[in-house]
Amino acid sequence: MLPFSTIEEAATFMGRNLTVAETLWFNYSAKKSDYYLYCHNILFLFLIFSVVPLPLVLVEMMRSLGFDKYKIQPKVSLTLSEMFQCYKDVMRMFVLVVGPLQLVSYPSIKMIRIRTGLPLPSLWEIVAQLAVYFMIEDYTNYWIHRFLHGKWGYEKIHRVHHEYTAPIAFAAPYAHWLEVLILGIPSFLGPAIAPGHMITFWLWIALRQIEAIETHSGYDFPWTPTRFIPFYGGADYHDYHHYVGGQSQSNFASVFTYCDYIYGTDKGYRYHKKVLKKLKEGSKVDGAQNGGSYHYPTQDLKSE
User: Fold this and answer.
1) What transmembrane ranges does the database entry give (predicted)?
2) How many distinct helices (H) and strands (E) make up the chain?
3) What's the pLDDT score for residue 246?
């Protein structure tokens, strides 16, 4: 709750007029408690889990209209009923674990001093903090993910997430309840180390989930804007991790690829792509000679 009754009081405190964004924030948040504002995350996560995957569901239903060529594992096809079942499983976890976790974790937000007042952070501050959050989450998630692919971690916890060997958008948060709790730690570390404004925190939670949905989409679209982000893994990179499955010791990164490169856990993927490239080049030659066509064979190749 803001310690000002009017916009004039806020302007006097800051020694300047409020920006348009700050005026909107004042009008919305002035009489709302910090706890109420923090709990917006529950609504945001529900909307993201429910709405963001829908275009990809439509794409899956319209593969025959030309989208099939972008499917990373084209031999795998799920019905609408199967995808909806995945959504129901995710929502069950949301109601039983994610939502309650958000409700009880507010003291930690107060402890690290996520602020809700004025002035609002600048765009540069928001972008810089989000970059830090992504880097910290990616590094810590990498090591937790590697642990979860050990014998005990995989059999007891992580195997649930790998039930989808060809991931779909709804399956991004599909996991064992303990994995949901464990992977909340990397997401919290960034804001704990570099605390910012509640708006930045909202954006972080939203963008991290949207990114997870994108990397679990099962489609490698050439127009995806994330292609221009340096060291970004993307759907094709993470899809290989699911494709290899429980035996996978490759592509542990959640967002970027640098950890896998540094620690040598992307060798299987790089070999896989090299073989595919040779097959593609050979198929193009055969196709030109015989009038045939090349079909991307990702679903037929595995390399540990």
Assistant:
1) 35-59
2) 16, 0
3) 75
Q: Judge whether 157 and 148 are in contact, CB under 8 Å.
A: yes
Compute, in degrees rounded to 10, the torsion defined by CA atoms 74, 255, 46, 189.
160
**DSSP codes, 246-289:** GG--S---SSBSHHHHHTTTTHHHHHHHHHHHHHHHHHHHHHHH
Cα–Cα distance between 155 and 203 in angstroms, integer? 34
Q: pTM, whole model, 2 decimals?
A: 0.89
Place of tokens 């340096």: 230
- Both tokens of 138, joined, read 């990616």
Digit-coded pLDDT (tens) for 122-136:
999 999 999 999 999
Q: What is the pLDDT of residue 285?
A: 52
DSSP state of 235: H
Instruction: Report in angstroms the alpha-carbon separations of 132 from 120, 191, 300.
Output: 19, 9, 38
Taking CA atoms, 86 is separated from 48, 75, 122, 172, 179, in Å, by 15, 19, 39, 10, 17
Six-digit token string for 57: 């569901």
Burial of 151 (0-12, 13-18, 19+ CB in 10 A): exposed
- CA-closest candidate to residue 98, choices 37, 169, 177: 177
Q: Residue 288 pLDDT > 50, yes or no?
A: no
Structure tokens that stand for 72 in this block: 């990373």
Half-sphere exposure of 82 (CA within 13 A, CB side): 12
Cα(122)–Cα(137) distance, rounded to whole angstroms?
22
Which of 180, 203, 192 minimizes the C-alpha distance to 136?
A: 192
